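Lab meeting, item 3. Inverse folding demo.
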């Protein structure tokens, strides 16, 4: 479906929405529109069946992998500010499969529209959302609270809210997002999974990017080694953001953060936030998301971590071998802004031949021991044997022009 937009500046697009006319119980005609200064402009016309009649059941397996009706799913999500159809189309184009729809601009009546763009939805646990969302096939999870440690929400109060919500909807997991490392143990009994918003890229210089991994390891130390963790990756910044406090992340910095999360076994990758204002970085996010999609069968197939190490501590490495197969995956990332060399040691059998996942022209020197030069913030991924056959949870069909 092609969306044609009038040529106007972004700051002239206050909001967008949909209205529908019911033709019968299962079919709606929807007109999506955008409000300009002096006119309401129709953008697209959609007809589709109501999706709310086949609710999803979301669980986690023993490895913390998300299961949608029993099938594995790796969330690639983004915090989105409105149900703007152009933004939704752009989000889909960049390889996302999930959005966090928790702003005042999101309404339960947008569930069908968002799901029709192939996106799973994380919803706020308000009375307005509860019944429509829990019955909807596109529903993924509840966003119980955003950075509660900074908004006066106590662990006891959120524990009570968590228990009440779990009683009302046992079919969808409940998550909390935190920005303070020390708050993680305080709220440990008020969520089924953890999200973290650690943003290290500051205009005046910030901490080493590898500190990002501390949050994932901390949550696992609290909850267990396979606790589900979906971190937010910083892609926002620049002189017009919070008075210039934040640096606009460069593509290689975002790459480093994404691969740090994957190396430290994140079971989902989220970005804060929808930020096409930096075209170079936004384009790079699309590339990264397609890489995650290619890695997904290796990440979610049944298996376990095997020993892997790096002679250079600035290079973080992970190795995973699949169950009922001799196949596996190695991921590494240089966490520094300078080029490095390292030797990776991986506990694989003798004679295993490794191959790169993305750059097929790049040789893999060695098998058990890999001598690896890496550029600043560069990532590396290789596999051995055949790609696992995994029946993934299907993305929803995207809208078609009628």
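The presenter then showed the designed sequence:
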């Amino acid at each position: 479906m092609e969306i044609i937009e009038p040529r106007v500046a972004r700051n002239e697009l206050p909001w967008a929405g949909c209205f529908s006319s019911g033709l019968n119980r299962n079919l709606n005609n929807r007109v999506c529109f955008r409000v300009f200064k002096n006119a309401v402009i129709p953008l697209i016309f959609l007809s589709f069946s109501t999706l709310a009649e086949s609710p999803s059941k979301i669980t986690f397996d023993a490895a913390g992998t998300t299961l949608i009706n029993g099938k594995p799913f790796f969330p690639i999500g983004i915090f989105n500010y409105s149900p703007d159809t152009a933004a939704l189309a752009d989000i889909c184009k960049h390889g996302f499969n999930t959005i966090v729809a928790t702003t005042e601009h999101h309404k339960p009546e947008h569930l069908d529209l968002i799901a029709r763009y192939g996106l799973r939805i994380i919803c706020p646990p308000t009375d307005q959302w509860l019944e429509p969302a829990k019955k909807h096939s596109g529903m993924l999870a509840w966003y119980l609270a955003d950075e509660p440690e900074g908004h006066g929400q106590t662990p006891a109060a959120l524990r009570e809210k968590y228990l009440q919500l779990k009683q009302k909807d046992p079919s969808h997991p409940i998550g909390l997002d935190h920005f303070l490392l020390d708050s993680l143990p305080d709220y440990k009994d008020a969520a089924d999974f953890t999200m973290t918003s650690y943003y290290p890229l500051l205009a005046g210089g910030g901490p080493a990017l590898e500190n990002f991994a501390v949050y994932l390891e901390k949550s696992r130390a609290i909850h267990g080694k396979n606790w589900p963790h979906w971190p937010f990756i910083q892609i926002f910044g620049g002189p017009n953001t919070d008075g210039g406090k934040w640096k606009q992340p460069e593509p290689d910095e975002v790459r480093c953060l994404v691969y740090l999360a994957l190396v430290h076994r994140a079971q989902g990758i989220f970005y804060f936030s929808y930020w096409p204002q930096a075209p170079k970085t936004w384009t790079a996010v699309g590339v990264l998301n397609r890489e995650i999609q290619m890695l997904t069968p290796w990440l979610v197939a049944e298996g376990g971590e095997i020993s892997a190490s790096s002679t250079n501590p600035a290079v973080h490495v992970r190795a995973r071998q699949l169950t009922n197969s001799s196949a596996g995956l190695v991921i590494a990332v240089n966490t520094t802004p300078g080029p490095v060399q390292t030797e990776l040691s991986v506990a694989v059998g003798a004679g295993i031949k490794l191959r790169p996942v993305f750059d097929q022209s790049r040789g893999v020197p060695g098998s058990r021991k890999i001598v690896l030069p890496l550029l600043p913030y560069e990532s590396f991924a290789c596999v051995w044997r055949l790609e696992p056959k995994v029946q993934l949870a299907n993305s929803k069909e995207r809208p078609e022009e009628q």
